[in-house]
Amino acid sequence: MVGLKEELLKSIWHAFTALDLDRSGKVLSHNLCTVLNVPHDPVALEEHFRDDDEGPVSNQGYMPYLNKFILEKVQGNFDKVEFNRMCWTLCAKKNLSKSPLLISDEDAFKVWVIFNFLSEDKYPLIIVPEEIEYLLKKITEAMGAGWQQEQFDHYKVALNTSREGLSAWELIDLIGSGQFSKGMDRQTVSMAINEVFNELILDVLKQGYMLKKGHKRKNWMERWFVLKPNIISYYVSEDLKDKKGDIILDGNCCVEALPDKDGKKCLFLIKCLDKTFEISASDKKKKQEWIQAIQTTVNLLRAGSPPPHKEARQKRKELRQKLLAEQEELERQMKELQVANENKQKELETVRKQLEAAAARAAEEEKKRLQTQVELQDRFSLELEREKMVRQKMEEQVAQKSSELEQYLQRVRELEEMYKQLQEALEDEKQARQDEETVRKLQARLLEEETAKRAELEKWHLQQQQTIQMTEAEKQELENQRMMKEQALQVAMQQLKQLELERKEALEQYEEVKKKLETAANNTKSWKDKVAHHEGLIRLIEPGSKNPHLITNWGPAAFTEAELEQRQRSWKGKKATSE
């Protein structure tokens, strides 16, 4: 809670110094209670801001109220970005430079928050040259550009001659001026600032796309994973708008690699107390990087250590404090040596004066003290010899201190050489990381193209399968219709054959009847001729029906010729219909 309080105080200090507390103290306090989720205490607020000698600008001051009624009640369940944005809003308008900058207001806000993180723990807040160099290197590395050490050294020399460091607004002007980002566009600089902001302020240790296996459907979905010191969050995409879930990390979690299975490669498993998560990385390198990053995070949780960037910041501060203490100690020793040397000089000067006085007195009393002159000279010689010995010892001590000082300076030079070698190694590592990042981006792009082509082929294959299934169904339906038509045709053919047989039978009966009719007609004609010849009759007149009837050998036919023709037409119509 002490570290959190220090972080809050830096942002509040900016807002506090930018406001006229007599008129705006209540507004600041109210806004702090709101963004920090601290219960409001209107009575204490009015009591503290009353117009008397106990008010916030009196000897009592604003800090006791801030500590007692606000900061001591903060539990950590608040949005740090929203808190910083509120403080930024109160102080930016008054302090932000009016000259045009190469960065946006949002980027300036992020630089301001980073300044509060890297600044020294003393007021007024400043950021020392070492932290400025660290921040500019991080931004340059995020932009993919080369670090200009010589240019910064010149700037550092010019800065050290005038002041100890920069304020937040001077740092924003420095980055916004583009002095250390020449040749880069606004978008590149903005993305670099955002990347450094995510790492230093939002504690984003690693992020990227991977495939995650579901717990219910057991399907694989692509998610954007974000690793923080105690949690892994995964989202639908990198815009972080649609959050799908969290993986809570603690000292009991572990991560291990898995063999390839079910067509998925580069698999690893995250084991927690209540759940396990199967994840597939894009390649072996990414898999190893994620495993190492998660394992490092779990190890830090077990050890109770802070995130790497916070630990590095603390080490840099401790190193600066150590160097400052050593420098102060060296200056103190040099001052002590100088004081001791001055004291000895004063002692020698006093002895010299005493000797001169004694010589003067001896010269005056030379005539009177001839007998004691030898004794005085011997005494003087002894004292002079003693003083010479003392002086020689002092010179030896000074030489010894000088030697120790030279050894210390040699050690400082060795440390500086080691620091330069370490910087060169860090530069090589940064270059390797940049090359690695370039290859990763190329691999990611190729993977995305391959995934898109595979999805398109699968879509075409699915459409082809659906078409084949529809064609098979239509073919089956046509086959069924053809079978039904063939059955109906067979029935119709059978009926046609039956009608043909019936027609043939009817024709045969008709031919037989016709033959019988002709025979009967011939017989009747022959009979009539005989009767007419023998009896003299011309014709046989018989009463009968007015309609002409067929006459058979057995008498009148059962139907007339008209009825017979009608039946013949009916048979022909049925035959044509069957055909």
Offer a quick outline of the entry.
With 579 residues, the chain is an alpha+beta fold. The protein has 14 helices and 9 strands.
Distance from first to last alpha carbon: 104 Å
Strand content: 5-15%
Q: Provide the structure class.
A: alpha+beta
Largest sheet: 7 strands, antiparallel
Can you tell me about this structure?
There is one protein chain. It is rod-shaped, with a radius of gyration of 57 Å. Among the domains are: 1-95, no CATH class; 206-306, Pleckstrin-homology domain (PH domain)/Phosphotyrosine-binding domain (PTB) (PH-domain like); 307-425. The strands form two sheets. A seven-stranded antiparallel sheet has the order 4-3-2-1-7-6-5, covered by helices on one side. A two-stranded antiparallel ribbon has the order 8-9. A hairpin with a 2-residue loop joins strand 8 (551-552) and strand 9 (555-556). The protein has helices spanning 2-18, 21-35, 42-48, 63-69, 80-95, 105-118, 129-143, 149-160, 168-176, 186-200, 284-303, 308-364, 373-535, 561-578, and strands spanning 206-213, 220-228, 231-235, 243-248, 254-258, 267-271, 276-280, 551-552, 555-556. With 579 residues, the chain is of the alpha+beta class. The protein contains 14 helices and nine strands. Helix 1 runs parallel beside helix 5 (80-95).
